[in-house]
Amino acid sequence: MTSGQSYWQIVWKQFRKNPFSVGSLWVLAVLFLIAIFAPVLACNIPFYYHDERGTAWPWFRALFNPEETVDYWFNLAMVAFFPWLIGVVIHALRYRRRYPEKLLPVGKYAAVYALAILGLGGIFMIPGVRPDNRYRARTFPEEEFARQGTARAVYPLIPFGPTEQDMDSPVKPPFYRKPRFTTNPNTGEQVLFWRKSNDGFPHILGTDDVGRDVLVRMIYGLRISLTVGFVAVGIYMVIGIVLGAIAGYYGGFVDILISRIIEVIMLFPAFFLILTLVGLLGQSIYIIMVVIGLTGWPTVARLIRGEVLKQRNLDYVAAARATGATNLRVLFWHVLPNSLSPAMVAAPFGIAGAIITEAGLSLLGFGVRLPAPSWGLLLRQGSENYHYWWLVVFPSLAMFITVTAFNLVGNGLRDAMDPRLRI
């Protein structure tokens, strides 16, 4: 019974039949929320701080002035999230009352969210609009500890920063809590071991070689992994879709030229090309994203080309031409929207592959540059001494869950878009 249903309603109905894919979709939703709200979950900058000098709200100012560009855009996503969510709920309720049989326009909601983030980014790029971080040089946990009794602060759930070091607590195991006092080896006396107000909080997943909290670095490392995956795949999806559509629709010399370019690009191994560029230009997350994007599009182009070749001979294309539509309008308005299924199936697998590539490069020392948090960098530290098992197990488990979730979603989309499986 599929009469009266749109294509995406049929796809969603088929997708929901796969419980593993649906569960993976929820896992990815949770991971995205963790990445977006990372500063609320873990940060060593207090929401509110008060001492004899007055009251400060440093967290809100630091939100718009993070050390990493990736964090800036994720922070804007956090700022835009709740207004966007309220708007989505209101629109969805009205849409359900008006069109009870139709699917919610999820794609439009996502596009509005992306435009809101870009709009906020543009607004805060205007000189004088973005609030300056006047508290950048202050270390509030140390100040609060030094002014016990006169200072009050409210911190996020985990009061550690992703780059905050504690040389007194290197490579400590999970649930390590720094003791308040320690014994002086020379005199045998008990001396105060705490230096900051957050020293008494446990390191749930332990610390790395310079005392940085592993859980916090994994939370912020998730931002880098998702950014590399989505930006790199976004680049090669756009290139592959456009070139594949042009090759399939026009055929002839255009098809031959683009096909030869595809074959040439496929000769370049992305991993070794990244290693070469890193050696020439230095470590950079942007090199990883751009190279994966510029070398990964041939597969998508081939898939789109084959689908467009099939679509261009159907009756609706001839009808569109008969109405006087130009070739570009027929291609991008009629043919291409009906040819995107292979690309949408390939996207989740591509994101998973990009995440693994970034982690592998960081493991080898050619990826993200310290002190930026990265799952691959944690693995690199753990691989140097396997006694520090928590530096290997937890990042590996995080990568396994994330990559598996993307792969299962890709499998679910592939099965849902296969006409042979529709009943």
Automatic annotation (TrEMBL):
What's the short name of a Pfam family annotated to this entry? OppC_N
Q: Where does this protein reside within or beyond the cell?
A: Cell membrane
- UniProt keyword annotations, A-Z: Cell membrane, Membrane, Transmembrane, Transmembrane helix, Transport
Which is one Gene Ontology cellular component term of this protein? Answer: plasma membrane
CDD domains, alphabetized:
TM_PBP2
Q: Enumerate the transmembrane spans.
A: 25-49, 72-94, 106-126, 224-250, 257-278, 284-304, 345-368, 388-410
Q: Which InterPro entries match?
A: BP-dependent_transpt_permease (IPR050366), MetI-like (IPR000515), MetI-like_sf (IPR035906), OppC_N (IPR025966)
Q: Which PANTHER family match?
A: D,D-DIPEPTIDE TRANSPORT SYSTEM PERMEASE PROTEIN DDPC-RELATED (PTHR43386:SF1), OLIGOPEPTIDE TRANSPORT SYSTEM PERMEASE PROTEIN APPC (PTHR43386)
Instruction: Indicate what this protein is called per its UniProt record.
Output: Dipeptide transport system permease protein DppC
